[in-house]
Design a protein that fits this description.
Number of domains: 2
Strand content: 5-15%
Strand order of the largest sheet: 2-8-7-6-5
Helix content: 25-40%
CATH class of the largest domain: Alpha Beta
Largest sheet: 5 strands, mixed
Order of helices and strands: HEHHEHEHEHEHEHHEEHHHEHHEEHEHEE
Number of strands: 14
Distance between the termini: 53 Å
CATH topology of the largest domain: Aspartate Aminotransferase, domain 2
CATH architecture of the largest domain: 3-Layer(aba) Sandwich
């Protein structure tokens, strides 16, 4: 199979849903009504939806069969035990606390360990993670390696934590003010870039020296493990499942959105080893999510996640997943479109700042590019940059480290012809990038503004 270049999906299509074909005029009207915010669009007005890979994938035949096993008992459902067994098979933490999605796990965790005067280091916080840290009054600090700050540079593990900066931060501040170190795998805000086992071991060693727990934001753990297997010396002969278990063994806990590498449309969990922390978190769970054996999820959702966790470490699936994403990225690179290199697992990140150098960062080049892709071709992507990362707690605004547009690929949803269409549209827009203008925000909420802000194009 390796000699052939055509990417073969390791599945057959069992059912289909229609896509509505729209005209440019229809899309222009839709985006104006939405305040030039792609999150405000009606999904029926989107042709190819690459806004996110979170909860947007297609579930398998066996997942839909598992849904029929869903037991909706309020407490102690058999579906809970199926879910627990699947989670602990890969992540053998002592306590597993189900939640309706990843940000709920973040909210619970940082409500317990965060607060004024606290600092949470990360390779790069994603939007909801940063918001949940800062909502408690704590400081979110990004410590990705220098290579991770340069979109065009090639490095196999650009998601790595800068060990020197982490050690300096822990030495500068007392351990009591740093309740945990967090590592995001893969590093979503930094272009979907993986973290190496060597780097995780280094983070673990530093945490041990200072007596600070290590947590994982593990939403795309299987994709990260595949990159470890294929890029890190000495890992090629290991099973992905075993690499995942080693990653888990290096941490004291994790947050997880099962809407990514859980292959489910909803769900997540918080897992910890510390008994006291688990008790505090469960108390909050009951207050905000539900009983500890369902955590805001129906039994059928627990069953779907349990099966999804078995499927996501299948190496035929992961080979297809990573190759199909790289197919899009490589085609755009060949066309001269600037992207974050190397291509990550779940998305291709367009470098809007490089493509639109005439649009200043505080005029939001990522938003300008994302809107243009929708208007011209019906493609909905997501700005990852100055808009998303918002204002500082004091209300000031500075440019993000990078201004990107993420084209996130839903799992097992689109075919190669869909991707070929995306390539055509992106190339067409990129060739006319000099015609694009920036935006200003006319209305924004105090946090996570990119979800609901309204924009006005600059003349």
């Amino acid at each position: 199979m390796e000699r052939w270049q055509t990417i073969i999906e390791p599945f057959r299509i069992h059912s289909v849903e229609p896509i509505r074909i729209t005209s440019r005029a229809e899309r222009l009207g839709a985006i104006e009504e939405a305040g030039h915010n792609l999150f405000n669009l009606h999904a029926d007005d989107v042709l190819i939806d690459l806004l996110t890979d979170s909860g947007t994938g297609a579930m398998s035949r066996d997942q839909w069969a598992a849904v029929q096993h869903g037991d909706e008992s309020y407490a102690g459902s058999p579906s809970w035990y199926a879910f627990l067994a699947s989670v602990q098979d890969l992540f053998p933490f002592r306590h597993v606390i189900p939640t309706h999605q990843g940000r709920a796990a973040e909210k619970i965790l940082f409500s317990v360990i965060g607060g004024p005067g606290k600092t949470i280091p990360n390779n790069t916080h994603f939007d909801t993670t940063r918001a949940n840290v800062e909502f408690t009054g704590a400081e979110a600090v990004d410590l990705v390696i220098e290579e991770g700050r340069h979109p065009e540079g090639e490095h196999p593990f650009k998601g790595n934590m800068d060990l020197g900066r982490l050690e300096a931060l822990l030495a500068e501040r007392t351990p009591a003010t740093i309740p945990a170190v967090l590592v995001t795998i893969t590093n979503n805000s930094g272009g979907g870039q993986p973290v190496s086992l060597e780097n995780l071991r280094g983070v673990r060693a530093i945490c041990d020296r200072f007596g600070v727990p290590l947590f994982l934001d593990a939403c795309r753990f299987a994709e990260n493990a595949w990159f470890v297997k294929t890029r890190e010396p000495g890992q090629a002969d290991r099973a992905v499942r075993d690499i995942v278990r080693e990653i888990a063994s290096l941490a004291d806990g994790m947050t997880m959105s099962a809407k990514k590498d859980g292959l489910a449309n909803i769900g997540g969990w918080l897992a910890v080893n510390d008994d006291r922390l688990a008790e505090q978190c469960r108390n909050l769970l009951i207050l905000t999510e539900g009983f500890p054996t369902y955590g805001g999820l129906a039994g059928r959702d627990l069953e779907a996640i349990a099966q999804g966790l078995r499927e996501v470490v299948d190496e035929d699936y992961l080979r297809y997943r990573i190759r199909s994403t790289a197919y899009l990225g490589d085609a755009l690179a060949e066309a001269g479109v600037p992207t974050v290199r190397p291509i990550g697992g779940h998305a291709v990140y367009l470098d809007a700042r490089a493509l639109l150098p005439h649009v200043p960062p505080l005029r939001y080049p990522g938003q300008a590019l994302a809107v243009a892709l929708y208007v011209e071709g019906g493609i909905r992507g997501c700005e990852i940059g100055t808009v998303m990362f918002g204002r500082h707690p004091d209300g000031s605004e500075t440019p993000a480290a990078m201004d990107l547009v993420r084209l996130a690929i839903p799992r097992r949803t689109y075919t190669q012809s869909h991707v070929d269409y995306v390539v055509e549209v992106v190339r067409w827009v990129a060739e006319r990038a000099r015609d694009l203008r920036g935006y200003r925000i006319v209305d924004e909420p105090p946090a996570l503004r990119h979800f609901t802000a309204r924009f006005e194009p600059l003349v």
